[in-house]
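Many introductory courses stop at the sequence. We go one step further.
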Amino acid sequence: MDTKNLADLYSLPELDWTNVRKTLDANIPQAPGTGGPNRHTYWLTTINPDGSPHMTALGALWLDGAFWFTTGARSRKGRNLARDPRCAISIAVHDFDLTVNGTAAQVTDPKAVAEIAARYAADGWPAKVDDTGQALTAEYSAPSAGPPPWHVYRITASTAMALGTVEPGGATRWRF
């Protein structure tokens, strides 16, 4: 991993990726009243056919050193990722704002899909594996996800950037 202190100009310290991972590993809550001004929201950016960005809020998970999320094949983000897997995901937490650039790949391994379903269920969304074993279903989802089944995606990071929001501050970019 290559690390660059983006706040050197201000003599601020480099942020530590280990601390960022510890925060992400703690399972950032997304339910109302659990963080942020009222909650923590993940934002996913994909690329529209004309090259313009498409950004949407979504429920995401951090597991095994990667971000995971779901969407339907007919949703805009699903169609965008099928055409071009490049994307970015971001979240603001107490100590830092984080943006991760990378590529999203659909996950079809039944064991991994079941693990993601169990994590979502433990966090309050009653997701379960569908009959194919390769996607999720539930009584409800975010309207932007489209109708079930919802495919599981894993983002492989190429770069990440964090901006420290508490003293002493700082800004750091990592290339993986």
